[in-house]
Here is the input.
Amino acid sequence: MSQATEVEDVYSAIEESAQRVGAPCSREKIVPILTAYGDALADAGIVLSVSTGEHPPAELDYTITVPTQGPDPYATAVEHGFVARTDHPAATLLSDIREQVPVSEYFIDGGVVAGFSKIYAHFPFDPLTVERLAALPSMPRAVAENADLFARHHLHQAAMIGIDYRRRTVNLYFAGLPAEFGEAENILSLQRELGLPRPDGELLEFARKSFRVYVTLSWDSAQVKRICYAPAPVRDWDPTALPVRIEPEIEKFVRGARRTYGGDPIVIAACKWTPDGAYLNLGPYTRVSPLMRTLLRNLTGQEV
Here is the structure.
């Protein structure tokens, strides 16, 4: 399949899903991004996702794998005008990460409404401790300022970092969570210390099953702006088991999202907490990258 055909195929899947959930979709905002990273699309993993809380959802996000063998994804974003040139520390954080750890794959993140937003560096086999994260020259000071809080709550190492160039925030994806993290009192205490609402019942049980936990930090303050609890991706997706009610169009989107693999959809479900409360982000895989196939096989024992 030619690059142009790959771009059209991915855009078609995005457009179809946006229509299914009722989100606006602009070809002019999406195709330039797909084209800029088009060399990666043939083997890319792709996740489409929406959040609960708005009816219909105001945004459909798409996350696409970018291999490490290709061009620097940040340089590509700047070259095509998706990210403005700046002397802000966000501009050098990705290169700082590469100097510390072998990155296994990158992801780019965009929305059908907002356009290009993030680049992720994924290093699942070489996680970085909080101490090493805090020592990165471009990392927000908020990491060091919250190091004791992370340690108290068994958040010791990150396997992925997301950089939001539009909002100038950083997501740290904590992995290798010990059993102590999933204890109810630990999660309740963490929420308290972050000044976030208390999770009860199904919301608490969902958080206790976390495979990864991520926090959102900025260069502007020490405050943890958001925390997200994410169990491992599942194939036996059951909307009735979710801690937040989802609208019919979201269930239709998850079940009907186009995919290049057989069987039920592989779905990422994440519960995000802000001072205003909790909402879910749901993302079915449209395509699965070679690395993610390996990780999913190790997690579930199933071939994709």
Q: What stands out?
A: The mean pLDDT is 93. The first helix runs from residue 3 to 21.
